[in-house]
Amino acid sequence: MKFAGTLMFVWLLAACTPTSAIPPLTPSGTAPSGTVISPTSTAVPSANSLSPTELKYQLLAEFPALFFCDSDFYPVAREDEGELALQRFPEIAANGEEFQAILKHQGLDGLIEFTDEQKLLIYREHKKLAVIQLEPTGDEYQFQVQVAEASEQGFLIRGRIDSSGTISVETREPTIATCPICLAAHTQIDTPDGPVAVETLRRGDSVWTVDATGTRQPATVLRTTRVVVPARHPMLHLVLADGRELWVSPGHPTAEGKPLGDLRTGDLLDGARVTHSEQVAYNAPATYDLLPSGGTGFYWANGILIGSTLSAP
To answer: Which of 57, 182, 208, 251 gets the most CB atoms within 10 Å of its CB?
Structure first.
């Protein structure tokens, strides 16, 4: 996998693994052949108002180092991106307001026929725009974007943009520019003193782990991480046959080192069969992880033995 080449992002996140990249976008010119798309009528904004997609382009111009985790590549690549572009193209073209704005900004306006290369370009542009969520508040919109700088350093930026495209930044919070593979808030971690919420654990606290022989033993927390995430960040909800369940980023490792997102119904996890696996929207502000001492890095989250994404300090 590779990081989004446009370094765009409203997803953000953890001290975990980097993701795949979206290459730079360059128009391909006039299409000699391909699928024919009929022109779509769109509402014309007033003289002083920009459409929602044009407002997103204003934000892209203001924050050119935007970063996001491309779901086509993160946590694992699903299909060939070009094939996905062809599959999604009719759906993208049906959204006339966004589609016409993309064509305009990519120098493709006026075309009704597109090559596969141009469809891929449009698909990549659509993915960038899709991660920028605008929440209407009166005659303005609230926005949240994340920008990436060198060495995985970044900022989570929140603010407002009005209908004319004027941007007001309200907060700029330092973050880590990498995609999350951590636990949901309120996940209960097994400790010698009983279950403790993951977000309350600190370096030096005691938790349970297992050694290389599989023997349960007390350990000390060596590291913790808290990674800020965007609104409605996707998380995986797993349910086991014995009733245990977990909300976690799909890329988080099992004790065997396999991404939890790779598990399917009927697969084994910590001695029980998976009965339910579903991606759900996550509404808490951050995800969490920890690293216990003892060599394996394993710990119990909601009673399920899993690995850690963190390395020893």
So the answer is: 182
